[in-house]
Amino acid sequence: MSKREGARPETYRVFIAISLPEQVKDEIERAQEELRGALPAECVRWTKRGQFHLTLKFLGDVESRRLEALTDSVGRACEGFGILQLRAGRIGFESYRVCRRAYSLIEDGFYGTTESVFP
Predict the structure, then answer these.
(1) Side-chain-facing half-sphere of 17: CA atoms under 13 Å
(2) Residue 10 DSSP code
(3) Which of 28, 54, 87, 118 fits as disulfide partner to 18, beta carbons 3.0 to 4.6 Å?
(4) What is the Cα 84 distance to its own chain's centre?
């Protein structure tokens, strides 16, 4: 990208997420297979296994020049925390005219239950 006067800086859509263990990805794929039979094909675009993750916070558009500092800050904020013990519960859908997102109830042993969007 050339540096023209008045040019908009390069940005990325950024979110903070947790990678999922392979066994969790296996379970998500099984759930997708079951749902494929229950939902009209035109209603759903299925997320591929390589993109499965648990989004903690969507940050929006972030300028590329700020990514390294942001990554360092998030890393420092996570220091000292132990391994999360999470469990996925029921699966549901947001109630829009068109299916947009599926979600699962995520439970942890410390904070209780929270709903979380997943692929």
Answers:
(1) 15
(2) P
(3) 54
(4) 16
Residue 78 lies in a domain: yes
Question: Number of structural domains, the chain?
Answer: 1
Decide which of 101 and 34 is more confident.
Answer: 34
Q: What is the DSSP track for 30-81?
A: HHHHHHHHHS-GGG--PPPGGG-EEEEEEEEEEEGGGHHHHHHHHHHHHTT-
Report, in angstroms and rounded to the nearest whole number, the Rg of the chain calculated over CA atoms.
18
Q: Quote the domain boundaries for residue 43.
A: 11-118
Q: Which tops the pLDDT comparison, 41 or 3?
A: 41
Tallying the residues shown for the chain, one arrives at 119
**Dist. CA 22–CA 12, nearest whole Å:** 27
Q: 54 is written with which tokens?
A: 């648990």
Q: Is the pTM of this model over 0.85?
A: no
